Amino acid sequence: MQKTSKLSRDGAVWGLLMVAPTIIGLLVLNIWPFIETIYMSFSKSLPFGEFEFEGLDNYIEMFQNPEFWKATGNTILFCILTVPVGIFLALLVAVLLNSKIRGRTTFRAIFFLPMVVAPAAVAMVWKWIFNTQYGILNTAFGQNVGWLTDPHLVLLTCAVVQIWSNIGYDAVLLLAGLQNVSQTLYEAADLDGASKVRQFFSITLPMVSPTLFVVLIMRLMSSLKVFDLVYMMVDDANPALNDAQTLMSLFYRESFIAGDKGYASAIVVWTVLLIGIVTVIQFVGQKKWVNYEV
Amino acid sequence: METSMKTNRRLGEGLTYTVLILGSVVMIFPFVWMVLTCFKTQAESMAIPPQILPSHWDLENFVTALQSLPFVNLYINTALLIVLRVICAVVFSSMAGYAFAKLNFPCKNLLFSIVLVQMMLPSQIFITPQYLMLARMGQTNTIFALVFPGIVSAFGTFFLRQTYLGIPNEIAEAAYLDGCTKWQTFTKVMFPLTGSSCAALAIFTAVFAYSDLMWPLICNTDLNMMTLSAGLSTLNGQYTTNFPVLMAGSLLAMVPMVVLYLIFQKQFIQGIAMTGGK
Predict the structure, then answer these.
(1) Closest chain B residue to A104 measured between Cα atoms?
(2) With the C-alpha atoms ordered A256, A258, A260, A265, is the resulting torsion angle positive or negative?
(3) What is the mean pLDDT of residues A223-230?
(4) CB 3.0-4.6 Å disulfide test: which of A19, B156, B214, B268 passes with B96?
(5) Which residues pair with A43 in a beta bridge?
């Protein structure tokens, strides 16, 4: 019925015309560059933006480079530091905001605030707070901790700021998921004498698991390609630079500062593969814990 | 029994407030500290033990920040970037989203898979060829360069397709039978029904265009053509230890968006909740 309706039957020309700008745009701006990046990763960069095919050289060079493995390790560590804690805290905030309390919208607005501040400005103020000599965190407690200069701490500090930045965004998404949970489920559980904690694990968590899964995938992806925050917080003169270098900061440096676009393309292809693998694992794993039945 | 439940509830409420208030303090403190630092002299900002309030509410740091960066240009560039990207995203995605949802045309599935592929790939994989393309056109250091990778939006297309799928076919059919042309059916009848989705897409596009750093850093290296984010990163290099000036610059960069947010708070949060998951 739907297929034979008059509107859609005559729509062929209009349909093609209306998708044309988007499709042409995507082909030129994304699909072709995607193919080019893969080609570049197998090529040597020559002056004037030319490339010469040379096979696996960039990948061999990359896999032999300790700096590359360090960046891969940093990126994965950053993920481990930010994703579980971040999602836990966002869920906590969402659950608390979902209860009947006064000032809900104000609290929600406060937690969401970092989302509308550019990461560049966020990084700047945290860099000041974490400053070793004059930062308020150290001076207030008479400490001298190198939050951003100690090789063992720098990534953790960046992770804290990342979690702080995203908590409100994730909480807003989770809150939308929580609000879809039918109130009657809780009423029934109350009658059965189930405790609030029990209700959380038996009702809330399974019902909100699809939203939780979306947030998890999104956070994993954004942590694996983190750039702006680390780039702004850890500058070139920082002694701990190498310990906070993520794959995307390495990519940026290689491609646009060192100018080795072939090698940089190999790094970005590797990052995309890494994101792909992690995402596939999540989609396989979701069967065990995500509940799509209402 | 009754009273113990009541105390329990009160206890739970008290705990909820405590956690939320503590959390809010952690969320707001950096911004308060930023504002306080802006007005301090460099010596005051470095005092040990720390000095909480500035001795004079001096605007000197703002003057220094305004002199070191062409803020007027940065505001204009950022505003143009946001407005142009929002217009492009809403117009082109509405057209494509409507066509994918309501019209039949050859290769529809194949073409839609292009949209899905773009959504799955992180933007960094396109960025080097996009830059080389732009450089070959001789368009670096222009407004066009800033907008360039965001002229079309795969996410917007996907999102608005969902919206149009939710509108019953009968509405479009009726308009068409009443003598609207296909284009009029879209512009006069269907498009106006998607107001809240378009607003959500606009907010989503604006927030992400505003916070993007890597592309503006790459495409426009001339200070006068930078965005606020990219400008801040150069200030960062210029005044490594003069935090009052850095804080003044950051405050100047964040104020317009925060003011917009405070006015349209509900729309911002709804928009993000609607587009959520990207």
Answers:
(1) B20
(2) negative
(3) 93
(4) A19
(5) A53
Q: Does B240 touch chain A (CB under 8 A)?
A: yes
Q: Domain-by-domain residue ranges, chain A?
A: 6-57, 65-289
Global pTM reads: 0.91
Closest Cα in chain A to B273:
A173
Question: In this structure, are strands A43-46 and A50-53 parallel, antiparallel, or unpaired?
Answer: antiparallel
3-state secondary structure A48-71: HHEEEECCCHHHHHHHCCHHHHHH
Higher pLDDT, B237 or B127: B127
Find the angle CA(A115)-CA(B221)-CA(B146) to the nearest 5 degrees: 50
With an 8 Å Cβ cutoff, are A109 and B269 in contact? yes
* Residues A125, B34 contacting (CB under 8 angstroms): yes
Interface predicted TM-score of the whole assembly (ipTM), two decimals: 0.90
Query: Would you state the pLDDT for residue B277?
Result: 55
Tokens of A287: 């069967």
Dihedral angle sign, alpha carbons of residues A65, A228, A130, B27:
negative
* CA dist., res. A130 & res. A127, Å (int): 5
**d(CA B150, nearest CA chain A) in Å:** 9
> What pLDDT is attached to residue B48?
78
Tell me the two tokens of residue B45.
Answer: 């900002």
Q: Write the pLDDT tens digit of every residue in B202-231.
A: 999 999 999 999 999 999 999 999 999 999
Q: What percent of chain A has pLDDT over 90?
A: 65
Given this model, what pLDDT does residue A5 score? 52
Structure tokens at A248: 């995307």
Residue A1 has pLDDT above 50, yes or no: no
* pLDDT tens-digit readout, A38-82: 999 999 887 766 788 888 999 999 999 999 999 999 999 999 999
Determine the residue type at B27. M
| CATH class label, A65-289 | mainly alpha
Token pair of A48 as six digits: 């004037």
- Measured distance CA(A228)–CA(A209) in Å, rounded: 30
DSSP state of A146: -
A146's tokens: 């190198």
Q: Which residues does chain B have within 8 Å of residue A141's beta carbon, measured at their own beta carbons?
A: none
Give yes or no for residue A2 having a pLDDT over 70.
Answer: no
Q: CB B99 to CB A164 under 8 A? A: no
C-alpha distances out from residue A264 to A49, A70, A250, Å: 14, 15, 8
Query: How do residues A105-116 score in pLDDT, each as one tens digit?
Result: 899 999 999 999
| Nearest of A85, A91, A94, A126 to residue B26 by alpha carbon | A126
Reduced to 3 DSSP states, what percent helix, strand and coil does chain B have, rounded to the nearest 5?
Answer: 80, 0, 20
- Is residue A43 helix, strand or coil? strand
Measuring CA to CA, which residue among B183, B205, B242, B186 is closest to residue B62?
A: B242
Whether omega before B168 lies within 30 degrees of 0, making that bond cis, reads: no
In angstroms, the CA A205 to CA A291 distance is 9
Question: Which domains does chain B possess?
Answer: 2-62 (no CATH), 70-238 (1.10.3720.10)
Provide the residue type at B77 as one letter: N
Q: At what angle do helices B71-102 and B154-165 cross, to 10 degrees?
A: 40
